[in-house]
Amino acid sequence: MERMKIRSMVLLVSIIFLLMCTATAQHVREKGIFFSTEEEFVIRGLKPADGNPIISDGDLLNSAGYVYMRNYELLKKFKARSDLGLDAADVINIRGHFVAFSTELDHPYGGFTAGDLLATNGAIVPNAALLANFNIPRGLDLGLDAVQIIGTEDRIIKFFDAVRKRGREYWIEKPKAIGEYLKKYGVDIWFSTEGTGPLSAKKIPMFLDGDLLSAAAGTIVLRNRDALPVLVPAGIPSRGVDFGMDAVTFRGREKPEIRKYIYYSSEILFEGRMGFTDGDVLKSGNGIVMLNSGLILPFKPKTKFLGLDALSFGNGKIDLYPQITHFNQVHVSDISITGLAYPGAPGREQPKDQPFGQWIQIHGYIPDDIDIQRFRVVYCKASDHPCSITEIDGIEVTAAQDWHVKCSDGFGGCNGDYHWFSDSDGWFNAAQYRTLRSCNPDLPLTMWNSVSAPDKNALYVVWLQIQRGGGVQVEPFKHYIQLDNTPPTNLALAPKNGNICGEFGPDNMPIMVQGRFKDDHFWRYRLTLFGGDPLGIKHYGWKYHDDSPEGDFVDPTGTIGPSIVDLHEVNINNLPVESIDDCAYAVTIHVRDRTIRGYMFDAPNDDRPIWTYGWYSWYAFTFDYTP
Fold first, then answer.
1. From CA 525, how far away is CA 535, in angstroms rounded?
2. Cα torsion angle, 134, 139, 140, 141, sign
3. Tens digit of pLDDT for each residue in 218-241?
4. CB 457 within 8 A of CB 475
5. What is the torsional sign of CA 408, 410, 416, 420?
6. What SS3 string covers 588-601?
7. CB neighbours (10 Å) of residue 21?
8. How far apart are CA 588 and CA 531, in angstroms?
9. d(CA 283, CA 99)
10. Any residues with CB less than 8 A from the CB of 192 and at least 6 apart, and which?
11. How far is CA 197 from CA 203, 206, 209, 223, in A?
12. pLDDT tens-digit profile of 255-272?
């Protein structure tokens, strides 16, 4: 009898534990970002329920680290046995697994095309029906790249149930009827296409594949140029590029305020100032709010980038955490754990393995809907990490450094001036920062005068701290930044045969120039010969650290060995004939390293230029020439 009581108690505890776990799992599934990747990968995080660690680009994932629905589960009602990919998705009911979506590939037996909108209840809205109110040719299928359904959850489900009952052929024959059903159920479908719309009477496209469209109204809801930050050259024909809209989602399903609640990803990346990848989550007019590496982090893939194809906030219960996104306008995904930027760059006009120096602009994202009182960026030496409280320094911007930014002038413009600085520990007021961002879209989180760091040439770990209520929280990422605040050193230059300030003639040409220089991040050097009357100048072209012709004596840290080495020949006959005379001439060497340097803000315009060609030093010798 006693044993039965014990077993009953164990069973009861087990049931309670199971219910607790189930409740926790259900809670997790009510939150997070739903998405799909452009590439397949092997999961190394939480093991999927079906035991299969291979993630397809057709599976619908959740940023909490679990597989929400496999591709075959999405396609269960459509009798498709192969993985057809996932190009767009909107999770309507999380617990009920009701999803509207599109595939990358057509149904193998003609059941639907990759441009049709599908739902997990078996409904199909043909591409022609989505585009019916745009009055384009009926046979034109422009694909489907992003989708978000507008309306209440119950009305949306009723709408798709009515669509399913009619069947695809009905909507093919009567595509305009979809507008009547959208109106009847108080629903709209906002979407983007894979292809550009046909030309209008004005000989311009009716819409671009980066524009967000309304199926109910047959209008453009948001143009690509208006979705992206003002620094991005988006827009055709006036600004040059259509970046596409590969995914879109909102907070909540009621018709949103465009700029405040639309989140999306682009079809192509942007490598300019404040760049982004085609896997980052962007906010309308505001830039990055979630890095691709942040979405996929819980799955622990062996890469930091997998792209982004489908995106959905589900019921809107998500937390977009504060994070750093750029250092001196370099996307954090382009910075390796060595703290060097662009590890895969070609090394010529775009140097590879670049450190950072001087003023470092640190950009990031501070959410509007989280109660954050203040924030700061902190750092410590990588050799000390994990660092104690005494080893962590906040990046301070002092009032004396005179950082002035634009602010509201009270008349609807941004002609006001605001003196912006932190407290002595580097903390900034978060509410004021958000306000200033409206007039300064690319306002950094802070500016780091890295020359004043305890070791101005060390590797540092950098991260963002925020204060909510009485506690301090940190972003989930640590960023490694290698500093280099020392120009090339130990320069020497001399002729191999002959003396500095010596006499040279035609028989001494050409002159082999020898030299020496050192820099931990050497990039390139160039010799220049000049002199005569009139002055003649000959530049001999840049030589790079990874050039490897026979007789080259440089490596990524400068010249090889402690002594001077052969660099390049110079010849007085390379100058214009009129400049060759009995006169004095000079040979100079300019040496550059690979440091990405930022400059101090230029008050009152908040001009923060970035110099990507590094620190430089120069040296010279002279000689006399007699023809």
1. 23
2. positive
3. 999 988 777 776 556 555 565 556
4. no
5. negative
6. EEEEEECCEEECCC
7. 10
8. 11
9. 23
10. 144, 145, 146, 209, 210, 211, 212, 213, 244, 245, 246, 248
11. 11, 5, 8, 13
12. 656 546 788 888 755 665
Type and span of the H or E element at 41: strand 41-42
CB atoms within 10 A of CB 535: 11
The pLDDT, as a whole number, for residue 72 is 96
208 secondary structure, DSSP code: -
189 Cβ contact partners less than 8 Å away, ≥ 6 residues apart:
117, 125, 130, 147, 148, 149, 150, 182, 214, 215, 216
C-alpha span between 275 and 513 (Å, rounded): 42
DSSP secondary structure code for residue 389 in this structure: G
| Secondary structure class of 393 (helix, strand, coil) | strand
| Domain assignments of the chain as residue spans, ordered by start | 28-320, 327-482, 489-625
Q: How far apart are CA 209 and CA 267, in angstroms?
A: 9
Q: Which residues contact 317 (CB under 8 A, 6 or more apart)?
A: 30, 31
The verdict on whether omega for the bond into residue 298 sits within 30 degrees of 0, i.e. cis, is: no
The strand pair at 287-290 and 310-312 is best described as unpaired
> Measured in whole angstroms, how far is the alpha carbon of residue 610 from the centre of its chain?
18
CA distance 218 to 155: 20
- Quick one: which of 538, 528, 517, 539 has its CA closest to 592? 517
Instruction: Give Dmax (Cα) for the chain.
Output: 119
Q: How far apart are CA 441 and CA 453, in angstroms?
A: 28
Token code pair at residue 90? 């909107």
* Tokens (6 digits) for 598: 């930022």
Q: What is the pLDDT of residue 6?
A: 34
Q: Centre a 10 Å sphere on the Cβ of residue 341 and count the other Cβ atoms it contains.
A: 26
The CB density around residue 605, as the number of other CB atoms within 10 Å, is: 11
Residue with tokens 């941004």: 414
CB 377 within 8 A of CB 463: yes
* pLDDT value for 8: 38
Q: What local confidence, expressed as pLDDT, does residue 272 receive?
A: 58
Q: Which residues contact 264 (CB under 8 A, 6 or more apart)?
A: 146, 212, 227, 245, 246, 247, 248, 249, 281, 282, 284, 311
Residues present in the chain in total: 627
∠ at Cα 212 (59, 87), nearest 5°? Answer: 15
Tell me which residue has tokens 């909102």: 250
Spatial contact of 95 and 65, defined as CB atoms under 8 Å apart? no
Alpha-carbon span 238 to 223, nearest angstrom: 13
Q: Which residues of the chain have pLDDT under 50?
A: 1-28, 259
Encoded amino acid at 30, one letter: E
329-378 residue pLDDT tens: 898 988 999 999 987 666 566 788 999 999 999 999 998 767 899 999 99
Are the beta carbons of 524 and 542 closer than 8 angstroms?
yes
pLDDT number for residue 30: 63
Which of 294, 246, 296 is closest to 61 using CA atoms? 296
Q: How far apart are CA 548 and CA 550, in angstroms?
A: 7
Alpha-helix residue ranges (DSSP H) falling in 372-527: 430-437
Contact 585, 511 (CB under 8 A): no
CB neighbours of residue 184 within 10 Å: 12
Q: What is the pLDDT of residue 226?
A: 76
Q: Quick one: which H or E segment has residue 168?
A: helix 168-173
* Among 343, 349, 342, 453, residue whose Cα is nearest residue 396: 453
In contact, 61 and 36? CB cutoff 8 Å: yes
Would strands 583-593 and 522-531 be described as parallel, antiparallel, or unpaired?
antiparallel
Structure tokens at 494: 């001399």
